[in-house]
Amino acid sequence: MTRTAGVTAAAASAVYLAGGTASAKPGSPVFGTGLRTFIGGAPVEQSRVLEWERRRLSVAAARLSTDHAGLLRGELNSLLGRFAVAVDDIADARSALSAARALVGADALRALLATELAASEAATRTALAASGGRWAISTTEIVSDRGSAAGFVEWFGLARTTDARAIWTDACPDHYIIATAADGRQEVVEVTGGAVLASQFFVDYADLSGVRIPADPTYPLAVTGTAALSDGTVIGGVRHQFRDEPGGGFRSRIAVAFPAAVPGLYIAEHQWHLACEFGNWITASLC
Length: 287
What we know:
By secondary structure, the protein is of the alpha+beta class. The protein is 44% helix and 22% strand.
């Protein structure tokens, strides 16, 4: 634990985003060019998605630095205040957070987040029991004017099977660990939607039995899987569907199922999470 605390403290100094990131390596391109995002069926400006991401970058920095007061302020700002934030430093902020995650490492991140993971698992089991087999679905749509549905699905699958961890974690500040195990399941440690606490679950893309998200026949391609806790308890699923657009480019319908008893804020906020991560993944696939 002493080593974990020391490494985390070192990482914290690298990701103290509020103070600037002049020493950070150049970050990834700001996404948004050629993308159109729809939440609740309504178009949202890409600038709003970038602002959401920048607020979450500050939250993640506070979590890694164990700055609990800063974490609370950041969550209140991100979830309730939604105050406007400058995004001109977002590339450097992304890069700094990526460097910090790599410096801490997966084992130390699990140790750092152990209390949160235990609490969120208990809350998930409670919500699952209260849901009575019902599910709530969080959905976001993204249209790209470049690329193809098949091209993106191939890129996405290759990133998973080759365990390209930086591609997975760097797509959203609320990603802490996304790793492909030897059995093909993907371990995910992230803050979902407005959950505040980090959670751990495992997505099995070979198991479709727990997926309760209807397939849309107008989308010929899909990435689908069952989400479960470490003991195999099914807690949800994903069905991400894709099709080419007549005028070029492709459309994505991204959907995640949660136990129905999960608060509505979580479902709504996870739409922004999906907009952020898939917007960045689509952009990365086209680079």
